[in-house]
UniProtKB/TrEMBL annotation:
Protein name (record): SLC12A transporter C-terminal domain-containing protein
Entry-linked InterPro entries: SLC12_C, SLC12A_fam
Predominant location category: membrane
Membrane topology: Multi-pass membrane protein
Residue ranges, compositional bias (Basic and acidic residues): 12-21
Chain's gene name: 6050276
The entry's keywords: Membrane, Transmembrane, Transmembrane helix
Pfam family, one: SLC12
Stretches with biased composition (Polar residues): 22-33
Domain SLC12A transporter C-terminal: residue ranges: 40-272
Region annotated Disordered, chain positions: 1-33
A GO MF label: sodium:potassium:chloride symporter activity
GO cellular component: membrane
Length: 272
């Protein structure tokens, strides 16, 4: 028996056999898959994953479709004015008005926020109007000069300044009727209701808010944004129902409305 090592011819045959074995294994596996599906009765997991992926892609495409985004429940088309309201804070305004009702000294936050908004790109073309309360009707012009001087020290760039007199006067009859209709379902002496005694105790406050509503409707009905100092109720004196009725009275029927209240910490710096 010869003791020679296998030559190149033997190695070539061995490599060919290994390749044939691999090809046979792959071929058997591939051709056997449908048979396995038929026997087991179960779908191929790879097909399930592919179908789920396609469904997710289709769902994503439908969610990004503007025609489907701007529809109400049941697929109903939304009115144009509703669509305009949805996009008013994301599109640049060519012209516009931001009204600020700075009613109390809360540290200046009520004034600072709308001013910052007016400096942003989308609102940079909007005018900033400031409304404040007049303490004395007889000194209206003097108080207006003082307020203008204060705004200049704060470096607030505004287009118009107006003081509101007589906010504690008797409101207009139609405004009173509106407020009574607003709270009629909450009147009573039970807990969680607005009693007659409570209404009498805060009548001046209610008149103040009703008059402010009239001023806001007169001056700000066509504005793009209204910012007002948030009134604070006295604990144990004003119920939650009455307080929310005040807020509804001040803001109902007006453009987008933002109530702001600082914590008495000054947020404005001024030239001395």
């Amino acid at each position: 028996m010869s003791g020679k090592c296998p030559g190149p011819a033997v190695d070539s045959v061995r490599e060919k056999n290994e390749k044939n074995l691999k090809a046979s294994s792959v071929s058997d596996l591939t051709t056997g898959t449908p048979l396995t599906q038929t026997i087991s009765g179960m779908p191929d997991p790879m097909d399930i994953n592919a179908k789920l992926l396609n469904d997710q892609r289709s769902l994503k495409r439908s969610h990004n479709d503007p025609a489907l985004l701007y529809r109400g429940p049941g697929g109903a088309e939304l009115p144009k004015d509703v669509l305009d309201e949805l996009s008013q804070f994301t599109s640049k305004k060519k012209t516009g008005i931001i009204d600020v009702y700075w009613l109390y000294d809360d540290g200046g936050l009520t004034l600072l926020l709308p001013y910052i908004i007016s400096t942003r790109r989308n609102w940079s073309s909007c005018k900033l109007r400031v409304f404040a309360l007049a303490n004395r009707k007889t000194e209206l012009e003097f108080e207006q000069r003082n307020m203008a001087s204060l705004l200049a020290k704060f470096r607030i760039d505004y287009s118009d300044l107006k003081l509101l007199p007589d906010v504690t006067k008797k409101p207009e009859a139609n405004t009173v009727a509106y407020f009574k209709n607003l709270i009629k379902d909450f009147n009573g002496d039970e807990p969680g209701q607005i009693s007659e005694a409570e209404l009498l105790a805060v009548q001046d406050k209610t008149n103040r808010h009703l008059n402010l509503r009239d001023y806001a409707l007169e001056h700000s009905s066509k504005s793009d944004l209204v910012v007002m100092t948030l009134p604070m109720p006295r604990k144990g004196v004003v119920s939650a129902q009455l307080y929310l009725a005040w807020l509804e009275t001040l803001s109902q029927g007006l453009p987008p409305f933002l109530f702001v209240r600082g914590n008495q910490t000054s947020v404005l710096t001024f030239y001395s």
